[in-house]
Predict the structure of M56 family metallopeptidase.
Amino acid sequence: MYLAALALVAVVLAWPVPRWLPAVHRLRKVPGSALLFWQAVSLAAVIAGLALAPLAILATVRRGHAVPSPADNLGMLALGLAISAVLAGRLLVQGHLIGTSLRRARREHRELVDLLARATPDRGTGGGGVVRVLAHPTPTAYCVPGASHRVVLSDSTIDALSADELRAVLAHEWAHLTLRHDLVLEFFTVLHTAVPGWVRSARGLVEVRLLIELLADRAAVRSVGQVPVARALVALAEGDHPDAALGYEGRTALIRLEILRDTGRHRALVLVAAIGSLVVLALPMVLGALVIFAG
């Protein structure tokens, strides 16, 4: 019974939940807590999936409630661990491939930016870095994460924005870099691509990207206020950025403007998301322990 419940948890967390959760728009009001819940769901699905094969082998070879000796069942034990190792290996391979691809793309784009852009100090946001300014007719802003990061603006962005709006944009980009949102997105991308295509939910990855942008918007609001951030969103609504970068996205501007108008603290929602994260993460571990010790 407990093994069937663990299998159900693995399937539900990997398949329907990532498709259903983006429809819970209320979570966007607490993007940090929402991302925590998303991470708990993803980790719980991985834990359940990795534990399933060894525990199924255990249930097959045991007689009664006693835990059988591993020495008496080496072949079956090796089979269960091998299945889990294949799943873990796929995650590790995808992590390596995606990480390598992103680092290469970011390195190449940094080299291009350094070649084409002019560097100017960022004196307005406390980011303490240098901003690269590209000649481009479309207002756009983004950052290239990594150990040698870059914040990039088009010259039309500088022309289109007031001083406060420009500070809002820069605060948004520095928040991405300081909080290492690229690592959060990379984590979800690895999990997304590691599962079979028929299981994947593109909506889930899109929602995670939106939550990351909302977190950066919150940081910008704390730095310069709500109005400059909203105006900057409108001004950069047609902007875009390279796939390996993070920054203002016009495709989500209307949603982000709607969230900006909500100034509530939503403590109850934060509490529910935190408790939900703990429960979801604990569930596969509790079920696994019950399979082992309760039979």
